[in-house]
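Anyone opening a protein record will find just a pair of labelled lines. A complete record is shown below as an example.
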Amino acid sequence: MANQLDEMNPEIMAEGRDVHVIAKVIPVETSGFEKLIPTILMAIGVIAIVLGIVIDKYLISAIGVVVLVYPWWRLKQISSEFNMMEQRIQNAASEIDNYMEQRVVILSNAAKLVEKSIEVDKDILVDIAKYRSGNFSEESRSDVNAQLNKATRALNVAIENYPELQSQDTIRDAMQQNSYLQKEITAARTLYNDAVNTWNREIFDFPFKKIVAAKEGRTTRIPFIADQETKEKAKGVFF
């Protein structure tokens, strides 16, 4: 088979191409034949067992027992593996939520300190207090992070416009802690997205994992997505 991609004579897209995460959940579905694979294997195992006994070849019967039991054992094992994978995803999500909750507290305190000196735009800073619970859902996690980033930028602008605020140690320390937590969230997002990527790949693995995923109603998961404003800023000129 010839090379499907030729790096020496590529089709160049001079205008470039932006990419986006598709926020769509895809359920796992199996065909009628795929659903019958475990049953077919078990039937073959039963036939081998009977044949081995009839012709007095117990090795064939032993192989038949393995073929009979393996599909049932493998399906149970995969179900357990999926449960453990879900726990890893939840643990990674919990790390993100923990850091975001800390950011909520720090930004809330920083906003109060800034408000003592200047009037802050309440609409820009958003109602940070509503995020203090830390109960972020899979759907809202990216949105909450975007709102916190928006509040951070608003505070930074306010502080930059008033030099006397920059000299206050408490405000400077709070913003430094916020910057540190942003980096920790980025690292936690990577772990979360790796776990989600593994999940999305494994549930479609043919045949047994796909069969179990479809039977249990498993679906793909959406990775942590950067907000549009952040993506636009990433294209800007910084120096």
About this structure: Helices lie at 32-54, 58-115, 122-125, 141-161, 163-166, 169-202, 208-215, 228-234.
